[in-house]
Amino acid sequence: MRGNRFVKKVTVVLLAVWLCLSALTVCPALASAPTGHIAITTRDHDEKQVVGGAVYRLYAFAAATISDSNVTFSYTDAFKNNGMPLEQSADAALALHLAVYAENHQLPYTEKTAGHNGVVTFDNLPVGAYLVVPTDIAQGYIPASPLIVYLPKIVNGEWQYAEECTPKIQAKSDTPQAVKIAVQKKWEGSAKHPDDVTVSLIKDGKTVDTVSLNAQNDWYYQWTDLDGNHAWNVVEPNVPTDYRVSYETSERLVVITNATTVTSGEEPPLLQTGQLNWPVPILLMAGLMLILIGWALLNLSHKDEETV
């Protein structure tokens, strides 16, 4: 009888310890770390119909580390020196900056072409962050902008490993108007900074011109008489050492700000996506209840021994 009581007490205590450790160290939904899937459907912006023949490149620019109940993204070695912090998920400026960086440094990618249904799929992807870059589009359309996909992410409290993207492309005009775009350089965090920086004019994702910004031109430049049937942007391709870049676009003016890093050579911040915290209190409560049950059984055991 006493042996059975001892086995029961040990079993209860072990279960309680296991539940507590489970609450603190593992998220069941992420334990198997499944692969991801990205589907891209290209549509006409006005007609809402699918457009076939689009070509997309996929870059894996950040690795995912799963720990406890959250996932953290950090740049891969190929992208870690791009100069823009990994802080804003699905940010359009980050996507464009990384696309130019990848093109200039000839980084590896996977490329696929959409069929007549306008769909491109990338399957069996390891968890991580991906850059989707349109490189060719159907004739008569302006290319879509690059975009970012994080795998996994949380949707309605559950981890999601599949993402469906629907970039909408604009048809070119029969009578395009000339457009202009200007760039302004700003500095933050230090009175002493490089004497000049180079910025690139981007046409449909490709570099077509570069200019130097410095004190002589008041850190400002403007391009005029640009063809309105193309997508125009400005990017700083080579961010100075110990600086980070950010972009703000308003009314055809791109403000590029270089801010000093807190510490020379500091690693860019890691990006963390949503945490599944709801299992933690439940498992902790369950563990606490089992501990109380074990304590009660132990007291009953002592009472039984006293009456024998």
Describe the structure.
Strands 3, 4, 5, 7, 9 and 21 form a six-stranded antiparallel beta sheet that branches. 25% of the residues are buried. By secondary structure, the protein is an alpha+beta fold. Helix 1 packs antiparallel against helix 3. The protein is flat, with a radius of gyration of 27 Å. The N and C termini lie close together (12 Å). Helix content is 21%, strand content 41%. It contains three helices and 21 strands. The longest helix has 29 residues.
Report the end-to-end length measured between terminal Cα atoms: 12 Å
Helix/strand order, N-terminal first: HEEEEHEEEEEEEEEEEEEEEEEH
* Average residue pLDDT: 82
Q: In terms of per-residue confidence, which ranges show pLDDT below 50 for 5 or more consecutive residues? A: 23-31
- The number of distinct β-strands equals 21
Sheet-strand content, in percent, reads 35-45%
SSE class:
alpha+beta
- Computed over alpha carbons, the radius of gyration is 27 Å
The coarse silhouette is flat
Total helical elements: 3
Largest sheet: 6 strands, antiparallel
Helix content: 10-25%
